[in-house]
Amino acid sequence: MSQKPVTKGNIWDFRRGIATARVLTQLGFDHGVGVDAMLQHTGITRAVLDDPAAEIEALQEVQLIRNLLHALPHLPTLGLIAGTRYHVTTYGLWGFALLSSPTLGAAVSMASRMLNQTFALTTNSVEQHDQLVQVSYHSDHLPPDVRQFIIDRDRAAAVTLQREILGRPLGYRRIQMRRAEPSPEVANAYAELFGIRPEFGQPRDAGIFDASLLHVPLPQADTHTMQLCEQMCRRLVDSRKARTGVAATVRNRLMRTPGHIPDMEEIAAEMRMTSRTLRRHLTAEGATFRGLLEEVRSTLAEELMATAGLTHGEIAERLGYADVTTFIEAFRRWKGVAPSTFRRTQGLPPPSSGQLRRRFIPR
């Protein structure tokens, strides 16, 4: 049965992190546009721009985009350039959750239902039929003067994320665009981005790829992105409790590979010592391997609930638990209450859930 995407209400008009404003402002600055000119009429001050915890309204971002387009009308591929600047790490802990998804399908499902953790201004629907998946981008709710830039930006950002979590291009079967065929320069920029020449003048903005790709395990192969995610998680955990010496080395290693937390034997081997020697070093520093592991898992679990909105099963998967029941038991040990109770008492939204929407995809 076909399900039409909803594009009204707060599905796109949500408050968003300041990181998107920083990306756009930096893009303008890199092309000679002053910061004050970029922020004009947005209500965003330099102080807000410099505050990593700040948030802005969607319409403030729309005005920022309008300023960028007004200042750089001679760059027809500006939206594509902007989109390639949105990396996994731009999205904070949500990016970590995306990177540590077990398969592309799990990442797509999470991204589709957690739109308000992204910086998208388009809305999207993911539909599967037989052996094809279609991701459609909807933009009729956006002001016409910024619409094409936003479509280009959001699609380029999606491609950038796909490459970083897959470690390679996705491999589209078809790219469809509603816009009329542009100049050869712009058409070539699209083809370079997607790896295939788009079909212009289509009834929808969509990308179509083989459904088999949804089951491909994610390699987490982009070393640079993984290192940035590790640093982000390390800062988070360090803000709760600082560590030095061997304990710091062990705790940092526990955060290095999303979705796979090594055991003590593995870490000891990497440090070129026996597990017994490692245990002795940790004891001398007043730490234990189990304690460090619990420290990392507890902090990341709480943050993934608060900022990424994952289900308990998804959190368990990313923290290296065999099943959700084991995670729930561990969470009770850390906090004294079940995860669902913790979410409720802390005023956190319940975890999101959803399925891929299905309908016929024309070949």
Automatic annotation (TrEMBL):
One of its GO terms (molecular function) is DNA-binding transcription factor activity. This is AraC family transcriptional regulator. The lineage of its organism: Bacteria, Pseudomonadati, Pseudomonadota, Betaproteobacteria, Burkholderiales. It holds the Pfam family Arabinose_bd. Gene3D superfamilies: Homeodomain-like. It comes from the Bacteria. InterPro entries: AraC-type_N, Homeodomain-like_sf, HTH_AraC. Residues 342-363 are annotated as: Disordered. One of its GO terms (cellular component) is cytosol. The keyword Transcription applies. The keyword Coiled coil does not apply. Keywords: DNA-binding, Transcription, Transcription regulation.
